[in-house]
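User: I'm preparing a small set of examples for a lab meeting where we compare how different chains pack in three dimensions. I only have the primary sequence for this one, and I'd like the structure in token form so I can line it up with the others. Please keep the answer compact; I'll paste it straight into my notes.
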Amino acid sequence: MTTPVRSATPRVPPQPGRLLLKLVAAGALLGFATLAQAACLNTSAGSGQGIVKGSAIMAPLMAGITISTTALPDETFNWTAPAPLSFVSAAGQSVSETLPWVVNGATMSVESLQGVYIPPTTPTGTASVTVSTTSCPTGVMTYTINIADLLNPTTTILAGDNQAVLPGAASDPLALGLTHTDPGGGPTVLSATLVPVFFTVSSVSIASLHPSTQLATLKVYSDGGGIAPVQFFVDPAAPVGSNFTITASAPGYPTQVFHATVAAPTPTMTIVSGNGQSVPAGSTSTPLKVETLLSGVPDSIPVTFSVVDGDATISESGGSTYVSTLAGNQQEASIET
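Assistant: Understood. Below is the structure token output for the 337-residue chain.
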């Protein structure tokens, strides 16, 4: 009788070096998978708000991601809005924004904020704005904006009209007020907030809307009180007497025009000290000191002192007249009796 024999392949224990290589390779693959894993949008704010045509939304739309993981590359947010809506930051229907992650304890987050402008030509009703990320393009978030009619839009010049400004000087603020009535149909007058107002100066060679460069047009959004302020700067070489205008226009609202003139500088001289002295015969007075200004700005010019009554003389010249040419805008002379 033959006894069956069972054979088995001998097992060879793994060598320490090979085991270490396998572990290192597995760790590298795991690390690569963690870094390459897409994180989709999971936080949002701003959807469902109402807005009157002609304004930007009150609260910016927010899209974000909050995760608990290792560091990821910077995230790119891709926003899209239907025409004629436009993004405040890009003045178009699409905008991409790449942002870094922010570490906060055991979590990491990244957020994108976008304002949206609703032109007066937008249909009444609702509009949808969407956003996704480059790393997770299928994870789309949608925001709804409820759009109401713009009723009885008005503009009023509140301050800054008919100014006379010196060459090289800045104007007082110009202020435009914007209002509309309640879109619900009531008579209540409301401040028109976040309305883009375009200020345009008629001659940029005379005045600019920037203190150091020639800027003919500047866009300013009205504040929470419905006021859009701006300031202009007269060129130092602007001819005295020149007239110019600053036009304020906002889509859907009446246009207003501010008027201005280049003013002539006004020279003034005031006594600083030395007036009303009593000087004994044979003595010298304390200095008679004056200050010269040109429209309130220190102006260094020569000043002539003259004795107009009596036989006193001016000590600096020994005669009845003396021209003081000290540095600065203060000049002086002393009297000998």
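A couple of notes for your slides: Residues 1-37 have pLDDT under 50 and may be disordered. The CA atoms of residues 154 and 179 lie 5 Å apart.

User: Perfect, thanks.
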